[in-house]
Amino acid sequence: MMNNNSGGDEAALTEFLSSLMDYTPTIPDELVEHYLGRSGFHCPDLRLTRLVAVATQKFLSDIASDSLQHCKARVAAPIKDNKSKQPKDRRLVLTMDDLSKALREHGVNLKHAEYFADSPSAGMAPSTREE
């Protein structure tokens, strides 16, 4: 069954692709072209390069937003051992666990070395450690 609005969809797509010529994405064209080239994709159409840049920017924005939500949930969760041990400074500190959870929701499995700090106070001298 044909959609009666397919002509309108094509016009909207054409207009969107044309607007990409006037748009400067956050991710530079050269960087996108470099990684597209490394994967074996070469296309002289700058609109397609910018479309990939916009899609990548959206993906990274979603990951950052989801990581922030995981971080906020972690900070808001009460400490089970002793509620008086909650830090007075409620700054949000993104951990690898927050990022890993967000990436996992988007189908990316992240494995990190055991020596990465998984807490805001890891690796700090005992006198400066927040407890």
Automatic annotation (TrEMBL):
It is found in: Nucleus. CDD domains: HFD_TAF10. It comes from the Eukaryota. Keywords: Nucleus, Transcription, Transcription regulation. One of its GO terms (cellular component) is nucleus. The keyword Nucleus applies. Belongs to the TAF10 family. This is Transcription initiation factor TFIID subunit 10. The keyword Transport does not apply. One of its GO terms (biological process) is DNA-templated transcription initiation. Pfam families: TAF10. The lineage of its organism: Eukaryota, Viridiplantae, Streptophyta, Embryophyta, Tracheophyta. InterPro entries: TAF10.
